[in-house]
Design goal:
Keywords: Glycerol metabolism, Kinase, Transferase. One of its GO terms (cellular component) is cytosol. Homodimer. The dihydroxyacetone kinase complex is composed of a homodimer of DhaM, a homodimer of DhaK and the subunit DhaL. This is phosphoenolpyruvate--glycerone phosphotransferase. The chain has 9 helices and no strands. By secondary structure, the protein is an all-alpha fold. It has a single domain, classed as Serine Threonine Protein Phosphatase 5, Tetratricopeptide repeat, CATH 1.25.40. Helix 1 (2-18) packs antiparallel against helix 3 and helix 7 packs parallel to helix 9. The longest helix is centred in the C-terminal third of the chain and has 20 residues, at 149-168. The structure holds adenosine-5'-diphosphate (ADP) and magnesium ion (2 copies). Adenosine-5'-diphosphate (ADP) is lined by residues 27, 31-32, 34-35, 38, 76-78, 81, 115, 119-121, 127-129, 174-176, 189-192.
Length: 208
């Protein structure tokens, strides 16, 4: 499970690095054009750290290493937010040697709450939460309906994608994009997009 977790985190890191330009150009429209740069810097560091982690580092330890690395390297609003999400995920993963859908639900719930606590935002403010929260809810619903892990993740991805579309229709009231007021309309949120990309990478990883 430890090498599985490393590989899953690597898949997430790879996707962020590959989408650096996209995330930066989205942030250029409604922010300060650095979301991709920030996130790629952070996940490049994560890749190095998790590969160098002691063999046998458990799921919780790897998530914690990821969170600490993001907090110390990403900068910007997204660093502490995603960093806190991974730190809370690590705490929720403590003692778990394997991950089943219920375990993933607990970990995801803790991560989501971490973002809310840290950013004091809620859904509808044009942030990463507009992708992350509906995705989480779709996952929970699918698990309850006894869908497989991959089916449940697919449902979550679909909801995250809808969440990205939704961010185009609302005005930002948190983060830098809020300075634009109505001019933030029509643009998709960079953080919602990075959330979707991470989730999609995790889903593809679990499918393979
Ligand atoms: P910065 O805005 O400091 O340059 P980034 O560009 O890396 O940081 O990240 C911007 C993203 O952070 C936004 O697209 C949004 O999704 C997210 N964000 C900003 N503020 C908050 C908040 N209070 N709560 C949740 N997400 C937020
Ligand atoms: Mg920015
Ligand atoms: Mg910035």
């Amino acid at each position: 499970m430890s090498s599985f977790t490393v590989a899953a985190l690597e898949a997430v890191a790879d996707t962020i690095v590959q989408n650096k330009e996209l995330l930066t150009s989205l942030d250029a429209a409604i922010g300060d054009a650095d979301h991709g740069i920030n996130m790629a810097r952070g996940f490049e560091a994560v890749r190095v750290k998790i590969r160098a982690a002691a063999p046998g580092t458990d799921i919780s330890g790897l998530l914690k290493l990821t969170g600490m690395t993001l907090i110390s390297t990403v900068g910007g609003a997204s660093g502490p937010l995603y960093g806190t999400a991974f730190m809370r995920a690590a705490a929720a993963a403590q003692g778990k040697a394997t991950l089943d859908p219920d375990g993933i639900t607990q970990i995801w719930s803790a991560a989501l709450q971490g973002i809310k606590d840290r950013g004091k935002a809620s859904r509808g403010e044009k942030t990463m939460l507009d992708a992350m929260e509906p995705a989480y809810e779709a996952f929970v619903e699918a698990v309850k309906a006894e869908k497989s892990l991959v089916e449940s993740l697919d449902a979550a991805c679909e909801a995250a994608k809808e969440g990205i579309e939704y961010t185009k229709t609302i005005i930002a009231t948190k983060g830098r994009a809020s300075y634009l007021g109505e001019r933030s309309l029509g643009h998709q949120d960079p953080g919602a997009t990075s959330s979707y990309l991470m989730l999609a990478a995790l889903t593809e990883f679990c499918r393979s």
